[in-house]
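Saturday, quiet lab. Running sequence design on the structure tokens for the scaffold JK sent over.
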């Protein structure tokens, strides 16, 4: 009965959408018609897609301006063709636009650990289940009143939230398990991503930790996760999971205990070492708990409670919505030129919202093309063939649009070297940002500055950037003044004024490439404008 009701709801939703589409047909624009023609080319060319074209409305052509008429099928008809691209509306609204990250972190900090009354889970039953769980996991899941309080609290107040996380986990957990197994890490560590980010790949903490596994900028860089104007690899589920596995394996080599690995992942190995000393040498998490930061004190119980609830979900009657797409039903391809999600959606019919979900590391919904960098596009498997079979058409379409929008696109700045800068008399954020070619907002974020005031002698952490040219195709060249190999210093020149003459080159680039240690430039000096 439940399935019948659900089907009727979906039928009603798509029926309403069809009515709305019919009403809006008369408002079709020339741009829509152009895109429709483009899509027709693709579906005509594809022999293996098994896509059935919907017959066009016979009156559609008569309602279009003469210049916008198309012969076979309109863009409205094509929107719902690729079945693999359709996501359930409930799944999208409740899961993709997740608000659980802030909620979970707030509850970890505010948990009071007082006794919670939840009659559906007697203490004796909980003890028996934890004993079974403890026997088959390397984590210490023995009964503890604090753990009981957290478990019952989640059951009493967070059951709906847990169901949403269980639904999301069906997509992410196979990916996590694949990487964790490669590094010989207990598969239960997958629950750590729930506590860290509530399975939101774009989650960002107030301190700047980002992604499913909440990497800080420097820790991410240590494990090969790059950040640029367009891409934040800390938000890349595959790359971030591999980096997390590497980091967790290194922590285990230090502590040899998975509970302490969890604590050190949250607060850092140094805080755990201090807690061990303050406890008199104990290496049992529950003995160390009172010596750890408040968040870490709540962090491990939250992990163990999540582990319990997922492992005993059926016993507690959790009924999560199932996603319409699984990780194993997706695949990747490497892009050969810059593409926007709008262009990909137009070409394949995959909803933009789905593209954002599958490719969360692209901050501006644009996949850049940078020489010697491999940027991948993840699509539902059934859309991969459609894309590959029509690459030339898609790339030509995208290239034409990108040429028109090129001036609107931001430069691709890749965060590179870390600098320790001491504030001097006369310094202000704007001056420092110009000196190193970085944004004021970045300086404030890197140093947790709430205002614009600086103190003389204060140290600032700055990550200098290198600008990378973006190409519509691999054969395109950057035809601006950056093609110059060198520059001869003239009277009145400064590093800042020179950098402004060559878009994409920063003051720090000039310093690094020319081994400049001061700001004095002699007229006639020849400066290199590239690394080589």
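Result came back. Writing it out in full:
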């Amino acid at each position: 009965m439940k399935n019948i009701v659900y089907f009727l709801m979906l039928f009603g939703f798509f029926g309403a959408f069809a009515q709305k589409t019919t009403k809006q047909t008369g408002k079709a624009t020339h741009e829509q018609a152009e895109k429709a023609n483009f899509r027709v080319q693709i579906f005509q060319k594809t022999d293996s897609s098994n896509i059935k074209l919907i017959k066009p409305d016979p009156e559609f052509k008569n309602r279009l301006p003469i210049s916008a008429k198309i012969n076979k099928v309109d863009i409205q008809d094509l929107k719902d063709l690729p079945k693999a691209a359709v996501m359930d509306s409930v799944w999208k609204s409740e899961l993709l636009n997740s608000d659980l990250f802030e909620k979970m972190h707030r509850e970890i900090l505010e948990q009071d650990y007082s006794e919670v009354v939840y009659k559906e889970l007697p203490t004796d039953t909980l003890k028996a289940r934890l004993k079974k769980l403890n026997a088959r996991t390397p984590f210490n899941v023995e009964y503890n009143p604090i753990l009981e309080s957290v478990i019952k609290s989640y059951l009493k107040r967070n059951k709906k939230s847990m169901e949403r996380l269980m639904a999301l986990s069906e997509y992410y957990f196979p990916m996590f398990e694949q990487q964790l197994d490669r590094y010989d890490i207990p598969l239960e560590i997958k629950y750590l991503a729930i506590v860290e980010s509530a399975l939101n790949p774009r989650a960002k903490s107030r301190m700047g930790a980002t992604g499913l596994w909440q990497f800080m900028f420097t820790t991410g860089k240590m494990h090969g996760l790059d950040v640029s104007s367009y891409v934040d690899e800390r938000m890349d589920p595959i790359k971030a999971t591999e980096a997390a596995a590497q980091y967790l394996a290194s922590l285990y080599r230090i502590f040899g205990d998975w509970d302490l690995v969890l604590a050190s992942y949250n607060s850092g190995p140094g805080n755990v070492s201090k807690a061990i000393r303050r406890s008199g040498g104990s290496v049992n998490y529950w003995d160390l708990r009172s010596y750890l930061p408040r968040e870490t004190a709540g962090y491990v119980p939250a992990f163990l409670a999540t582990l319990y609830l997922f492992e005993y979900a059926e016993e507690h009657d959790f009924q999560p919505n199932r996603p319409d797409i699984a990780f194993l039903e997706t695949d990747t391809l490497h892009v050969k030129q810059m593409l926007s999600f709008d262009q990909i959606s137009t070409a394949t019919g995959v909803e933009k919202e789905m593209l954002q979900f599958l490719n969360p590391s692209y901050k501006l919904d644009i996949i850049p093309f940078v020489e010697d960098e491999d940027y991948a596009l993840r699509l539902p498997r059934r859309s991969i063939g459609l894309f590959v079979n029509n690459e030339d058409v898609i790339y030509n379409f995208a290239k034409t649009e990108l040429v028109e929008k090129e001036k609107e696109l931001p430069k691709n700045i890749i965060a590179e070297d870390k600098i320790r800068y001491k504030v001097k008399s006369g310094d202000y954020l704007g001056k420092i940002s110009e000196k190193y070619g970085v944004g004021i907002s970045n300086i404030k974020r890197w140093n947790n500055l709430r205002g614009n005031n600086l103190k003389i002698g204060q140290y600032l952490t700055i990550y200098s950037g290198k600008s990378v040219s973006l190409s519509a195709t691999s054969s395109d060249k950057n035809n601006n003044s950056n093609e110059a190999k060198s520059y001869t210093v003239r009277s009145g020149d400064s590093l800042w004024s020179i950098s402004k003459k060559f878009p994409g080159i920063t003051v720090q680039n000039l310093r690094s490439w020319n081994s400049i240690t001061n700001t004095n430039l002699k007229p006639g000096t020849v400066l290199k404008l590239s690394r080589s």
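Notes for JK: The two ends are 70 Å apart (CA to CA). Confidence is low (pLDDT under 50) at residues 1-95, 472-482. Ask whether to fix the surface positions before the next round.
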